[in-house]
Specification:
Radius of gyration: 21 Å
Largest sheet: 6 strands, mixed
CATH superfamily of the largest domain: 2-keto-3-deoxy-galactonokinase, substrate binding domain
Length: 325
């Protein structure tokens, strides 16, 4: 395999990248908001008689993105394999796969996958990566990101907790290079609901792009309040901060962000997380690092945002190589 197509298909976003296998350089990409949720709605809206098969409908979305890349680079990508991770293997995806079970090794050897051979209409083999479940929790996509975050030569602690921030943040416990447990936190989703649809929407405003937060600003006050105040009470304080003029709307948005991130991270104060590894993208990395500092959780291993953002590609490549070794 000299090149492959990396498909990172989330609930609300779609990203297809042509990857050079030797050095994992991105040669071209096609990114859109055609995530699994809107794709599923579009398929269902066709009606049971008129609509194509579910698998065929989703494959056509991928085919259209491949065609766009081909037009951009000027040559065909026939026979280039497509490796898909994320929500494509979910109940609203192209094919629902059963979850793999814990533990799984972080070299990608025991991640559950489904193989589909090339066809005349879609001349690409498909490797669809499934998610993982515990007794109480599930994830799809983060298992691939974790595999990609951990390089083969990384000197891992015997026990540690990998924090993967996001809409549904994951805390994954890794022991002796095996993922043994994890928890999901609805931090990002709750933040969006509160800022856009709750009584707080008029009290917060501002940036979509990441801003620098400090250990003495409103963000950090939110982190501290998450530990010392009941969450539902502290959330309402974003309104009183606005009414009393204590914070500007932008400062209030940071306060709410700090409050929810602090609520997520505070359990690390009362458990033994081992070595903490932070794997956040550019929009969240600095916030989580600041929150860890405010909470006194020092000594965390912080992966660069660029390394984390390319982790899915590395994880898919490692899983593919394990399947073909």
């Amino acid at each position: 395999m000299t090149t492959f197509l990396s498909c990172d298909w989330g609930t609300s976003s779609f990203r297809l990248r042509l990857i050079q296998a030797l050095d994992l350089e991105v040669l071209a990409s096609e990114i859109s908001g055609q995530g699994i949720a809107p794709t599923c709605r579009a398929w269902e809206s066709g009606g049971p008689r008129e609509r194509p098969g579910r698998w065929e409908f989703y494959v056509q979305v991928i085919h259209n993105a491949i065609t766009a890349i081909e037009h951009r680079i000027g040559y065909t990508l026939e026979q280039v394999p497509v490796i898909i991770s994320g929500m494509a293997s979910s109940s609203i995806g192209m094919l629902e796969l059963p979850y793999g079970n814990l533990p799984f090794t972080v070299d990608g050897a025991h991640v559950h996958t489904h193989f589909a051979p090339p066809t005349a209409d879609f001349p690409h083999e498909i490797i669809l990566i499934s998610g993982v479940r515990s007794q109480l929790d599930v994830m799809r996509g983060e298992e691939t990101q974790l595999v990609g975050c951990i390089s083969d030569d990384l000197a891992l602690a015997d026990f540690g907790t990998f924090i993967l921030p996001g809409t549904h943040s994951k805390h994954i416990q890794v022991k002796e290079r095996q993922a043994v447990d994890f928890k999901t936190f609805m931090t990002g989703e709750l933040f969006e609901l509160l800022r856009r649809q709750s009584i707080l929407r008029d009290a917060v405003a501002g940036h979509e792009a990441p801003l620098i937060v400090t250990t003495d600003g409103s963000f950090s006050q939110g982190v501290r309040d998450a530990v010392t105040q009941p969450l539902l009470h502290a959330a309402f304080r974003a309104r009183t901060h606005h009414l009393f003029g204590s914070f500007t709307p932008i400062e209030n948005l940071d306060y709410l962000s700090g409050l929810l991130i602090g609520a997520e991270l505070q359990e690390l104060l009362f458990t033994d997380p081992g070595t903490i590894y932070l794997c956040g993208g550019a929009h969240l990395q600095q916030r989580y690092a600041t929150a860890l500092s405010v909470l006194g959780l020092t000594g965390a291993v912080i992966f660069s945002a660029a390394w984390t953002e390319d982790a899915v590609v590395r994880g898919q490549h490692k899983i593919y190589n394990q399947l073909n070794s």
